[in-house]
Write a structure and sequence with these properties.
The protein is an alpha+beta fold. The protein contains seven helices and 14 strands.
């Protein structure tokens, strides 16, 4: 068993006190046969009253209600998780196998009402450009690629042609914008991959979470994003176009959605004078800790 401590801090700065409206926080890891949350502490400055709910995608959402005005909003998310090694848990071994689903994908009739929501494009104005880009890709090595092999081919192509650029601005670029610029953040690449897979008739969702990396271990990490595809014989499987690899034990999902806006880690509104907003800072630390150690917090 591996134990990880995660500290995620988001700070918004303003040049005058502002009144904060309701904020939506998607910050609690998704649990399952491999992930168990041992500790979760979510705090804000100024202090907020938190209301918890589970959304339609199974994400744990906190709604933060503020009373106090401030020129600074800080959100601290501290989590300790256990991740079971595959050798100690038979379930992942039984669920992990190579998909042989061909293209075009045929989904079971009973799944179609749900699948349609993961195939519908989020960017209809970009649909033709994305489909044309997919059609223009060099053919994969396989003579008759399966749906999963084509997903990996698209993901690797994004990795090799789109240059990573860290952006702190909210929102995502359009897929055609990312293709035109040739640069994008992890969430921009995830959106491009999601729309590319959907153009092939493959159910795909956007995933927000954390990546265990050298930067996150040193406290210089940020939230991460990738795409999951759903195939009838393999369920949900993730691919990370930012690093050009399948999702692995380095990844920790916080939220999933049919739309990238559905899992923004922090979203909300404020009322204040024009030009009050000055900027934001995000820092994520993800470190492995001894199994006997649960609380390793420094919040000053």
């Amino acid at each position: 068993m591996d134990r990880f401590h995660i500290m995620h801090r988001t700070i918004y700065r303003y040049n005058a006190p502002v009144q904060f409206g309701m904020h939506r926080l998607v910050l609690r890891p998704r649990e399952g046969h491999e992930i168990t949350v041992l500790k979760h502490q979510l705090t804000t400055v100024p202090q907020a009253r938190l209301f918890w709910l589970t959304d339609i995608f199974g994400n744990n959402i906190a709604l933060a209600q503020f009373e106090e005005e401030s020129d600074r909003l800080e959100i601290r998310n501290e989590v300790v998780i256990d991740r079971m090694p595959r050798a100690e848990d038979a379930a992942p071994l039984k669920m992990s196998r190579s998909s042989v689903t061909p293209l075009p994908v045929t989904y079971p009739q009973m799944e179609l009402p749900v699948v349609r929501g993961y195939i519908a494009t989020v960017y209809p104005d970009d649909q033709a450009k994305v489909a044309a880009w997919v059609a223009s890709l060099p053919p994969p090595e396989e003579a008759h690629p399966t749906a999963m092999e084509m997903v990996e081919h698209v993901g690797r192509r994004i990795y090799s042609t789109i240059k990573y650029r860290r952006r702190e601005e909210p929102g995502v670029q359009t897929p055609s914008g990312t293709l035109a610029l040739g640069t994008g953040s992890c969430r921009d690449m995830a959106v491009l991959m999601m729309e590319a897979c959907r153009s092939m008739g493959i159910a795909t969702r956007f995933v927000s979470g954390y990546l265990n990396s050298t930067a996150s271990a040193a406290g210089r990490g940020a939230t991460h994003a990738w795409a999951d595809v759903y195939l009838p014989d393999n369920g949900w499987t993730g691919f990370d176009p930012t690093i050009g690899e399948r999702v692995s034990r380095k990844h920790l999902a916080i939220g999933v959605s049919a739309h990238p806006r559905g899992v923004m880690p922090v979203s909300g509104i404020f009322n204040g004078p024009p030009g009050a907003y000055e900027g934001m800072e995000v820092a994520v630390t993800m470190q492995q800790v001894p199994v006997e150690e649960v609380a390793v917090v420094t919040t000053e």
